[in-house]
Amino acid sequence: MHLLPPPLITTVQVMGSRGLSALGGSAQSPGLPSLHPPHSPPNRPGDRAVIVCFGSINLDLIFPLPRLPVPGQTIAGPDLHIEPGGKGANQAVAAARDGAQVVFAGAVGRDVLAEAALALLRETGIDLARVQRRDGATGCASICVDPEGRNLIAVASGANLGASQGSIEDALLGPGTTVLLQNECAADQTAALIARARAARCRIVLNLAPAGPLPQSVLRQIDVLVVNEDEADWLATRLATGSHAVSLHAALGVDVVVTLGERGLQAEARAGRFRLDARAVTVVDTTGAGDCFTGVLASALDRGASFQSALRRANAAAALCCGRRGTQGSMPTGEETEAALAG
Fold it and tell me: Which residue in the list 98, 223, 285, 291 is annotated as catalytic?
């Protein structure tokens, strides 16, 4: 059993920027009034932007297996890797390693898993003053990974469902703040923070993962929605629209990114319509790739990058992540992402 193993890096072939192309479209879709005031540049001490991440904290039990099990089947694997995880914590680490200043709010249990679950957040220098202790278990995930990097995941939410957005003081929310959210904490807490952040004129990035109900009125208050194909299909069914980024953007009036795995991504935004090919990579483990993408996207936008540049950076970082084993430990540094983009 290995606690917090170092990421294993394999050969990565970097593709050029030709995969990203504006396919047309206006800067804002006609007929959709903007709910989103322009963001002011950061004005904090040291002139550094801040990301406030409210989300889940887990301890991940990762099982490398020769194949993924089917119902009723037991598959023996050679080893077990244990490292911190949770979509919120993963995205916070990805953003911080990319160079962002990150404040994290969430919850862990009063148990032996808590400190291990917080280890990489602390090591990365993320502000954990707003992480609460709750009765019950720290969130935990069982992750099976096959030789092709595909995964099968079961999550026990535990203390994450007791996380309160009220731990985030109003002074942290303002036009220079990016609020980063997922869907592994209680929906009412996520919705309440979105309302507060919108009133404070923050930028709001929501990764609707896992797919779960948030009212359409709440979704229309965010700035950027990130979903994978399954989540896009789930949301499209509830909105009675198509699952393409164009359709979701038209239904909600927000910037939408749909990640497509090995087929790259599609995005429909106020800045235009974009398509980005996946970067060539020897896949080891895809478990943390979506979180890496979202965290780096938020980090780049928080620093003032254009939407197109932020997409390119996030895509490059996610490719590096896929070439490494693990979840939180697989997030690349900003320097590694810069080198990939320059290659």
Answer: 291
